[in-house]
Amino acid sequence: MSPADILAAIPKLRALVAGDICLDRWCRYDPRLTEPSRETGLDRIAVVNTECTPGAGGTVASNLAALGCGRVAVLGTTGDDGHGYELRAALRQRGIDDSLLVTAPGQTFTYTKLINTYTEVEDLGRVDFVTFPPPRETEDELLRRLEAAAAEFDVILVSDQMETASGAVVTPRMREKLELLALRRSGLLIWVDSRMHIEQFRGVVLKPNEREAREACGRLGMDGPDYAALRRVTAAPLMMVTHGGDGVTLADEAGVERIPTEKVEHPVDICGAGDSFSAGAALALRAGAAPREAALFGHLVASVTIMKPGTGTASPGEVLTAARGMGLA
Question: Region 231-260: what's the mean pLDDT?
Fold first, then answer.
């Protein structure tokens, strides 16, 4: 399938993003207004503007919506705080269905990024509002909603992004539920992007980056990265390992193949590139593209978004322009 063929099929698809749905707060501060606090003597950071966007799995959902996916929904948790309200508002603003989110006591998974207004560079430490695995009753409700909603979607993209060993929304029970759904629903594509637990999934399509795949192999006791072995252990029908601007490795039952991609010169912001790739490649696969075609389509989407500040998205027109520029149209 060509990129144009894939884009023509995307509006017919329905996609659910399940897992860690967070809020990104882009806080621009004016360094000229920095002065010591009277109370503590510590320098205050004077934020003059704040923009809120969906982050983690929310970034994937934003990319799906921007590509024209017929229905996009998210399943995860928010806290009963102001950040949860801002996250739901940001999702709805982008046409993303937030009705499957479960509100739980506590705070919302939030990244707060401090951007210098003069350099547009994030040059101070990020402030993270972290979450942990949900209480049993919240987990039960998440699993109930996942089971009930699965038949309404063509593809489920799993975002397991919390950088703690215990994880957050994507618990062992959710991994088991996803494995069962993959077995029971032959037409359902389940795509998983996990920072720290990729080797714990079974029977689903996996998308680690090079570092995540290497670390997963290490946790399994392998001497080095062995993509074929990692795919076998996880019983993944397909694994796509991204290498930044240096291509994508495909691993399936037929073997392992490295797909070269055209490197994008002078990217503006690579934050969210993996999420953009996931959105594009997963939709392409479900639309009927071959793995190689899907990987190249995912690269096209990411090549557009990394030329934008923050976690940008790519429109169909921008993807077609990129395809022509790379000789893939």
Answer: 95
- Give the number of other Cβ atoms within 10 Å of residue 276's Cβ: 30
Residues 6+ apart with CB under 8 A from 306: 264, 267, 268, 269, 270, 273, 276, 312
- Look up the CATH superfamily of 3-22+55-109+131-325: Ribokinase (3.40.1190.20)
CB atoms within 10 A of CB 259: 16
Q: What pLDDT digit, counting tens, does each position of 130-149 carry? A: 888 889 999 999 999 999 99
How close are the terminal C-alpha atoms of the chain, in Å? Answer: 10
Structure tokens at 256: 């392992």
Number of Cβ atoms within 10 Å of the Cβ of 279? 34
Query: 309, 268 in Cβ contact below 8 A?
Result: yes
Say what the pLDDT of residue 309 is: 82
**Distance of CA 182 to CAs 33, 135, 154, 253, Å?**
54, 25, 12, 17
Closest CA to 322 of 300, 307, 289, 302: 300
- Residue 241 pairs in a beta bridge with 249
**Alpha carbons 209 and 121: distance in angstroms, whole number:** 25
Query: Looking at residue 184, what is its pLDDT?
Result: 93
Please list, in sequence order, all residues whose beta carbon lies within 8 angstroms of the beta carbon of residue 136, skipping any fewer than 6 positions away.
Answer: none
Q: Are 259 and 248 in contact (CB under 8 A)?
A: yes
Residue 264 DSSP code: P
Contact call for residues 241 and 209 (beta carbons, < 8 A): yes
**Annotated domain spans of the chain:** 3-22+55-109+131-325
The values of phi and psi at residue 7, to 5°, are -60, -35
Contact predicate 28/322, CB 8 Å: no
- Give yes or no for residue 88 having a pLDDT over 90: yes
Sign for the pseudo-dihedral over CA of 82, 84, 87, 91: negative
The rounded Cα 123 to chain-centroid distance in angstroms is 24
Residue with tokens 């500040």: 309
Closest CA to 58 of 242, 279, 267: 279
- Quick check: helix, strand or coil at residue 320? helix
